[in-house]
Amino acid sequence: MSKLMPLVSEGAGKINPVSVAEYVGLGGYEALKKAAGMTPEQVIGEVKKAKLLGRGGAAYPAGSKWEHLLHIPETPKYIVCNADEGEPGTFKDKLILGKLPLKLVEGITIAGLVFGAKAGYIYVRGEYRKIQKQLIQAIENAKQANYLGDNILGKGFNFDIHVISGAGAYVCGENSALLNSTEGKVGRPRIKPPHLAEVGLFLQPTLVNNVESLSSIPAIVLKGGDEFLKIGHPDSGGTKLVCLSGHSAKTGVYEIPLGKVTLRDAIYDPEMGGGVRGGASLKFFHLGGQSGPIGSPAQLDTVYSYTDLRKAGLGVGSGAIVVLDDSVSILEYLKGVTEFFIHESCGKCVPCREGNKQLYSILQKLAVPGAATQTDLANLRRLVTTMTAASFCGLGQTAAVALNTAWKLFKDEFEANVNRSAAAAA
What we know:
By secondary structure, the chain is of the alpha/beta class. The protein has helices at about 20-25, 30-35, 40-50, 60-70, 90-100, 100-115, 130-145, 175-180, 210-225, 225-230, 265-270, 305-310, 330-345, 350-365, 375-390, 395-400, 400-410, 410-415, 420-425, and strands at about 80-85, 120-125, 150, 155-165, 205-210, 240-245, 250-255, 280-285, 295, 320-325.
């Protein structure tokens, strides 16, 4: 029996992605029609019952976010889709944007209907140039078919969607930095509170959700929240798109029901990863992107759900699973991770801007026999604590997660080259 469950990805690669007629043939826009006959409270009630957790990485309950925005009286309200998929090892939003853009458009339109919004924005990663053009065409086709624009479905609802291109800045994946960039400002995170639901895009109440989150809304509306919940885990309904890369025998995007599949299944099942490339041994895996935790083969039987992974000291994050074989040096791998954060730090706060550089400097010393001392190891641990506690936004706060989890698993590799005599003399 297949462990895969195409729900959000249903129809991907089987239709012309910009054809409204073909999307409707798959059952598209039935959810919008149903939502048009429901009250905003009823739609949000289904999202809450579904226990949809944000699929962008933070895993915040979507229903609670929607309910909060509904009760804010100020208008206009805006719907913003975070499609700035800059997390290394993550390419699941690209699947939806490239092969099922109208499913995303439908989800955003339902959100617009619920909140009485007039405009929605999709902030797309700058590197997805071809996809942006296709997305714009899909939006235009939806307008021509009266699923967007003026008087949608004859219900007197006017709503339009605009596509904004990012410029390749990873920090703009942080929602407030994304909104600043959308407004034409420098893409740096804002101080919170006030929260984005209250003071968001153009200082107005705003809903910001990930591509996968918004693309799950049509299924929730059609099936109902209770049915969507049954598909997944009791604490987090539905499915998750996971991205396998690195030394995985079969790289790609796979949709699995939450709580029904283990990490071992995802990495080794022939329908998914198919094991480690070339039959090599698995040394470790990196979950949820560069800002996620590193896991070991001993954790392979952990069930893939937000709850079970968290209990194991792991996490879903963006859905990335980077597989690494036993030829990889953990120190060299972490140097690459840290280089990424050095490059992508916006520079706004000292703990992130300078902390990542210092982490890299110590990792370089640890990789050379006799170059590092026990003091360097102590400084490494101190830096991790400081960056996690004092960085301004999630980029700096999670930049050392991979290093911190790797320390627990591969402490011997960190200490292998330490000059103990120098430490003793000091």
